Amino acid sequence: MKSTKDNTVHKVAIIGSGPAGCFLAEILALKLAAVQIDIFERLPHPFGLAVNGVAPDHLHTRKVTEQFERTLARDNVNLIVNTDVGRSISYSELKQRYDRVVFATGASEDRKLGIPGEQLQGIYGSGCFTRWYNSHPDYKDLKPLIGQRVGIIGNGNVALDIARVLAKTTEEHQTSALSKSVRAHLSQCNIGEIHILGRRGPADASFSLPELAELGSLSQAGVQVAANALAGVETQNLPPSQQKMLQQLQHYAEAPEDSSVAPQIQFHFYATPMAAIGTTQLEALEIRDTRRGTLYTLPLDTLITAIGYRTPAIAYVPYDAELGRFAHQQGNIESGVYCLGWCQRGPQGVIPTNRSEAMKLARQLIRELES
């Protein structure tokens, strides 16, 4: 790593132009007296998760990119696209050229279920699927097989986002950021059932209330929660946000079923996938009910797994294969090299979380570079 003592301008490389990288660039560009920031982006466009991961019908969330555009327009910030670090430029080259290097590459690889039949056609990771409907260049040629019966494994907001996008009508999609080709593909689908499967109970779900309640406002979809799924759930010691989430699930459980609308979105808890069944194409999912210890089969045509992500490894950058992210100590990979965001803490937290963490790292970098 270069010494900065004789340099009048500090050179910082940020790998990744998503929220974590852009927030850090913004703070350093404003607070560090003399700095040149180069942001390396593998794709032909910036902003990462802010455009490739945010649901296409949540346009207000995507407005954060307007702030990032102002950062990229600053004289001391340079965006370098179509550059795959580890191939286009090596890790050792970065360390030689820059005073500090920060990896903010996110976590883009879908975690595997690890069950028999996972290779069947009609099974997709949520990262792959959401990047398809968000027109990610790596997935522009994907034409997912979306049948009448769709299963989504996961009890977080990604699962809700996917269910909502699939359940919306063509008219509801008109106000979203979906491309014409994706809208056309979705309009040809005839989805009758969407099953959201969680391996643990409702109290362990990480749904946020607005996203969960939003399902109830869809024009042509019903929401079902089995009444016995909430039986015995103790709520008094849970955080208020979790209690409100469970109240919304209870509301769905108590609401009369309207069989005249489709698709029907049904929540399944205590449902552990055991095997995907089919010859070449998915036909069903074998599930273990962890409360009763029994097995049952759910007929499905399409399965989307929303069970987490891993950070892709980069040649010679220390990596923790078990955790699926860069190896580090409190964000420090090695002398002068740091990581930030999902590639540091794993795939959790929302966009504002990255800002607070970027502020913390920026303070540390400023202290080091100005000492």
Automatic annotation (TrEMBL):
GO terms for molecular function: oxidoreductase activity. FAD binds at residues 20, 41, 49, 85. The keyword Flavoprotein applies. Its cofactor is FAD. The keyword Flavoprotein applies. InterPro entries: FAD/NAD-bd_sf, FAD/NAD-binding_dom, Ferredox_Rdtase, Ferredox_Rdtase_adrenod. Belongs to the ferredoxin--NADP reductase type 1 family. This is FAD/NAD(P)-binding domain-containing protein. The lineage of its organism: Bacteria, Pseudomonadati, Pseudomonadota, Gammaproteobacteria, Oceanospirillales.
